[in-house]
From TrEMBL:
The keyword Repeat does not apply. PANTHER family: RRNA METHYLTRANSFERASE 3, RRNA METHYLTRANSFERASE 3, MITOCHONDRIAL. It comes from Prauserella endophytica. CDD domains: SpoU-like. This is RNA methyltransferase. It holds the Pfam family SpoU_methylase. Keywords: Methyltransferase, Transferase. The keyword Transferase applies. Residues 67-203 form the tRNA/rRNA methyltransferase SpoU type domain.
């Protein structure tokens, strides 16, 4: 069955994707018969055109990176969609929401359908997950004593943990961290948007650990 386009799927003036499959249908069960018949307008890279969602997730699962991303959500942070979308783009192992379970999916642009998402009621539960899976907790905030991410070595197996707009990282998150990193700023604002900070730090991990010859 064709997946319904969500409110944030790419629709409207600039239609993306491809129309109905031309020629004999491929004999491969990764392909979705409905997408082959009607076309594929989803927000996915071209190599996954016409693939079933489960087949796409399985393919990414085989090559996900060992960094996880976590964001605190005690006050319904509106940046989480952006964080999920960027984590998807960089093939993060999973995204962890810490605090409230509900989050605004608008900014995710439907990428959450291809991403593993976990919920933890508090930082303690996230820390237990990290310990169980051998992940260092790298907290991200511009707090005193933080190491500049521009020069810090990021552990390969880790959770990058972000705070929310307003309060920033909770004291529990700072306490649980094996390492705290900050992003250098030079202007007047106290901090940057948490979604932007997440993109910068995820990319710092990519620069240190990813095999760029495997990028799309
Ligand atoms: C808007 S900031 C909040 C608080 C900030 N500590 C303050 O002094 O106002 C929200 C989150 O974005 C991330 N962030 C924003 N600017 C950052 C920076 N320069 N370095 C590291 N993280 C940053 C952190 O994860 C932070 O918890």
């Amino acid at each position: 069955m064709i997946e319904e386009t969500g409110p944030t799927e790419w629709v409207g003036r600039h239609e993306v994707g491809v129309g109905p499959w031309q020629g004999p249908w491929p004999d491969d069960d990764r392909y979705d018969p409905d997408l082959l018949e009607h076309g594929d307008r989803r927000n996915v890279v071209d190599p996954y055109r016409y693939w079933r969602r489960e087949a796409i997730v399985a393919d990414v699962d085989a090559r996900r990176f060992p960094f996880h991303v976590a964001i605190e959500n005690f006050q319904h942070d509106h940046n989480i969609g952006t964080v999920v979308r960027t984590a998807n783009a960089f093939a993060a192992a999973a995204v962890h929401i810490v605090g409230k379970r509900r989050w605004n999916r608008r900014g995710a642009m439907v990428t959450d359908r291809y991403q593993h998402l976990h919920h933890h009621v508090g930082v303690g539960e996230l820390a237990a997950f990290a310990a169980e899976h051998g992940l260092a907790i790298v907290a991200v905030d511009n707090t005193p004593g933080a190491r500049p991410v521009e020069t810090a070595e990021l552990p390969r197996e880790c959770v990058l943990l972000f705070g929310q707009e307003g309060p920033g990282l909770s004291p529990e998150a700072q306490e649980a961290a094996d390492l705290v990193v900050s992003i250098a700023q030079f202007g007047t604002t106290r901090s940057i948007n948490a979604g932007v900070a997440a993109g910068i730090v995820m990319h710092a991990w990519i620069r240190q650990h990813a095999d760029l010859s495997k990028a799309w």
